[in-house]
Amino acid sequence: MSERFDPQQADIRWQRAWDERQCFRADDASDKPRSYVLEMFPYPSGRIHIGHVRNYTMGDVLARYKRMRGHKVLHPMGWDAFGMPAENAAMEKGVHPGGWTRENIANMKAQLQRLGFALDWSRELATCDPEYYGHEQALFLKLYEAGLVYRKESSVNWDPVDETVLANEQVIDGRGWRSGALVEKRKLSQWFLKITEFADELLEGLSGLENWPDKVRLMQENWIGKSQGLQFRFDLSNGEAVEVYTTRPDTIFGASFVAVAAEHPIAQGVAERSPEAQAFIETCRAGGTTAAELETAAKLGFDTGITARHPFTGADLPVYIANFVLMDYGTGAIMAVPGHDQRDFEFATKYALPIPRVVAANADEACKPFAGEAESGDGVIVNSDFLDGKSVDEAKAEVISRAEGGGWGQGRTVWRLRDWGVSRQRYWGTPIPFIHCADCGVVPVPEDRLPVVLPEDVDFQTPGNPLVRHPVWKHTDCPKCGGAAERETDTLDTFVDSSWYFLRFASQPADRPFDPDTIAKWLPVEQYIGGIEHAILHLLYARFWTRALARVGLIDVKEPFASLFTQGMVTHETYERRNPQNGQTIYFSPGEVDRSGEAASLKDDGQPVEIGRVVKMSKSKKNVVDPDEIVATYGADAIRWFMLSDSPPERDLPWSEAGIEGCGRFVQRLWRLFARYDASASGEDKALDRKRDQTVAAVAEDIEALSFNKAVARIYELASAIEKAEPSASRSAAIRAMLLLVAPMMPHLAEEGWAAMGGEGLVAEAAWPEVDPALLVDDEVTIAIQVKGKLRDTLTVAKGMSKDELEALALASDKVQRALDGAEVRKVIVVPDRLVNLVA
RNA sequence: GCGGACGUGGCGGAAUGGUAGACGCAGGGGACUUAAAAUCCCUUGAGCCUUGCUCGUGCGGGUUCGAGUCCCGCCGUCCGCACCA
């Protein structure tokens, strides 16, 4: 064996060997137990980000481990290839989105392959392939036939200068990110998927997802937002009526005004007669459209002069147009109860409206003033006529039943979840397969005319959607009447593409999206791994598509991901200086900075730079490192090892130069350790045998729990134990076991060592080491001896010693006697094999 | 604003309610070397009256023989919010 392990040679050699043997091809037909390991597929931005390396390393370790445990493994990779960055590149650099994307894919694929991931590349797909999106169009039409697709008016962010629809992230302080023009809301007829029809199912289904993080289930539950409440009618002073929805009918006597959204018909009606109201609505429209902006904006209102008659008291309540009322939720109008809702409280304070108390801790506190904020907690109803003294729940039921009895309202379940708008007024996406005919209306493209393929010859130098401007593409004939007609020019949200790719990975016939029998052989995904940022949207949409496809009979799976893991981000220090002229922060990349010991200085001028916070790697802060450079310096195994070390995988991982150097050193240390392997060594080292099998068992558990950082720590311990041991058959066995333990994590090193030790075939096809259960239990344990809960001594005793013996041994300890200092022992707590606590 | 998480040495972190700080990084000391790199060994929470003692898991309370872990109340940081992927 040579002195040093040379990753640059070894990595490539073994990657070739795996490729030649097709080691990682998933075999549909095998009757081994199955494992579908999937990481969220990347957007082909051009370069692999270190976060990808972390994500795919985790999946790779699991996939390789499962294969060692005798499973057939499906571990595929593909590209979430549609989306805005390609169009931005087209506008900025004059390149074609398709060409740009395919070039990026080729680059990133090479980068992934250089990292040695055990992927089945034969199943690679890109969502921008007509083959893929053609099947997607077919599925979309199936959902249309099932009544799950419809069109309705919906507003978008319109940039009047660029003549384009903007995504929320492209709107900055109410202005278009490129043009700087004030963004308008514009109503368009758009395509929607009826996810709300599955709201109950998606909510119920969460309880079965035991291997999902609780936090993700909770976030989805809140997102779906089931609420039981009362919808009822206020008669208005102008002869009209307004329907409001409230989740707190128990507080109805605390209502002091009524508020409607700016888009509400009542508000629109008032605006027709009042220029001031019109102006107010305009102000609301100018504000941001996102929920966060709406809800953090200062509460603003406009008194319409209309009043609403309270159904119980007959009081006249003022009706306001308010910027914090959402048109999309409930009825777009609310009864405002300032005492018990914080938003209403702020509004009432601002406009000097009454803030009555109708819930109190007890009846004696019926007149207690509010401490500067609303009280939304539980309590007893006060100041509410017939509701006085009732609990919140009793009062809710009572009010609903009276409203229903009186015919002016009824109990209603309302969901926060809204239908999914999938229309995008963009080129680089899946064309929505419909045709608009003047005579026949909106007509689906017949299946035999799919796919509807994007035109290649498009121009991004003029504003607007290239599909709309294209000279011929949209002109076609109506499938029904044969007359001249136009194609739909909207494309699908890219979340649609990622809502079924895991099915296509499992089965990819040419003539259909997938084959249900093959799907049944792989799905559900055993382990799905990706970023927490997808906790709600992507994961909810994918769950919805799976259920929708099951409903139309295409598959027999309801939940796509049996187990979900959300990994943390990779972070890095920032290096910065403040520009004294304008106070702006200038960032420097790690490559520009000399970072030794406590301080950091700029290589260029030798002057210090400030070490900023450790934050998510981003181009704007320049705190990024390039995986390629790391691989070129340290090899694939070192970067993989870094990704698994130290930080728990669900938490952020701070990148550091020192850390990767340490990983590089450990690769070499293991190599030297493998060099000590001696098949002919004899002699037994019982303690090492024990350590070996305990480590093998623990690492297996850790990998299955994705606790890679713990597995790494145990591997370090075993390495130290082997290094300290004298040559023996036990030591050689431990070295061999060590090699197999690290094989999923550092596969190139493992192959190289395996070959050097004279192992059969490839480690990639080897089995996980067996353990002797008898070796897993220690025969001695260390017992903590406490006096009054404080540690005073430890004793090493035979495992399983009786309570009485332990107590006697504890009392016999000098240290214990000194700590007791003659005090009488009143109580003794003995936990066998753990501790003795003497309470004086 | 609403929803979700997180908080332990200089740093990343470990710890079924039972010995806080495993393991790694960084630091200090030493060996080897003409020297360096590499490697190996020792050491490293703070304080003190140093055979040992006291304090110590964001802050303040509580439950318990015993709390990093459970409960209540704060503070701080981060993530998501429906057209970014």
Automatic annotation (TrEMBL):
GO terms for cellular component: cytosol. It catalyses: tRNA(Leu) + L-leucine + ATP = L-leucyl-tRNA(Leu) + AMP + diphosphate. A motif ('HIGH' region) lies at residues 42-52. It is found in: Cytoplasm. Its main location: cytoplasm. Keywords: Aminoacyl-tRNA synthetase, ATP-binding, Cytoplasm, Ligase, Nucleotide-binding, Protein biosynthesis. Residues 685-803 form the Methionyl/Valyl/Leucyl/Isoleucyl-tRNA synthetase anticodon-binding domain. It comes from the Bacteria. Residues 221-403 form the Leucyl-tRNA synthetase editing domain. Its EC number is 6.1.1.4. One of its GO terms (biological process) is leucyl-tRNA aminoacylation. A motif ('KMSKS' region) lies at residues 616-620. Residues 40-171 form the Methionyl/Leucyl tRNA synthetase domain. Pfam families: Anticodon_1, tRNA-synt_1, tRNA-synt_1_2, tRNA-synt_1g. It is an enzyme of class 6 (ligase). Residues 417-573, 616-655 form the Aminoacyl-tRNA synthetase class Ia domain. ATP binds at K619. GO terms for molecular function: aminoacyl-tRNA deacylase activity; ATP binding; leucine-tRNA ligase activity. NCBIfam families: leuS_bact (TIGR00396). Belongs to the class-I aminoacyl-tRNA synthetase family. This is Leucine--tRNA ligase. It comes from Novosphingobium marinum.
